[in-house]
Amino acid sequence: METNTLTALPALTGHYPATAEQVDFFAQNGYLYLPQVATAQEVAAYRPAIKDAVKRLNTETRKMEDRDTYGKAFLQTMNLWRHDAAVKRYVMAERFAGLAAQLLGVERVRLYHDQALYKEPGGGKTPWHQDQYYWPIDTNRTVTMWMPLIDLTDDMGILTFAAQSHRQGFLENLPISDQSQAVLEDYVQQQGYPVWRPSQMRAGDATFHAGWTLHFAPGNTSNLMREVMTIIYYADGAKVTQPANLNQEQDRQTWFLGLEPGQPAASEINPVLG
Ligand SMILES: O=C(O)CCC(=O)C(=O)O
Fold this sequence. Notes:
By secondary structure, the chain is an alpha+beta fold. It has eight helices and ten strands. It has a six-stranded antiparallel beta sheet with strand order 1-8-5-10-3-2. It has a four-stranded antiparallel beta sheet with strand order 4-9-6-7. It is globular, with a radius of gyration of 18 Å. The structure holds 2-oxoglutaric acid.
């Protein structure tokens, strides 16, 4: 994209006025919903570039019925910012990173990675899981921003949270799977965690969830693609840990460029953002 076309894209700067109550809600519950973190116009300006990057990077070609549960959940493309200058501008947005820092109660956050999660019409549920099971990092100050790029209705698979579940930290070595769904759904019921999701979301609304918060999403029973972009942040100053499972080892190689355990989690693809 030409530089002058790029700079015509909305800057996504400016402080989002999250209240002290909202910040406290996130700390207590491990998730937060915020309306219009980006305006409909801002999202509309970035949506074509994100959609185009997803199309170029997607490697899933199997029919729905030939995929496993994870494969049915969404088309997952990652670190789009490294492949597209317009998407980079969205992922690096000061407004989003500033909110992440505010929710985590830190001065600055770094980027772990971004991912587009496009749940196809007829796409299956995203099983219950904890994100941080995948991350070789020594801090609990981690957060994902999950932002739809189109308006979502309840049948499109909106992200759903078990309130307060982050307080337990690591639960079990359970990657996203039928097993994580069975075990963690039971666990959520046994613990009596309130389960919550917005009944609808507008493009540019966002949810934020902590790395240990249990969450899932129902299948997409609508006939529209659920277009969602996510950005994962962590507190600057965190260190890489000894991988506790094979997925963490893969993440260490991919998102920390092979940094050794004990080193600052600050590779060249983990810029400070806010
Ligand atoms: O979008 C989904 O269905 C799942 C998203 C998720 O698990 C995450 O962003 O951590």
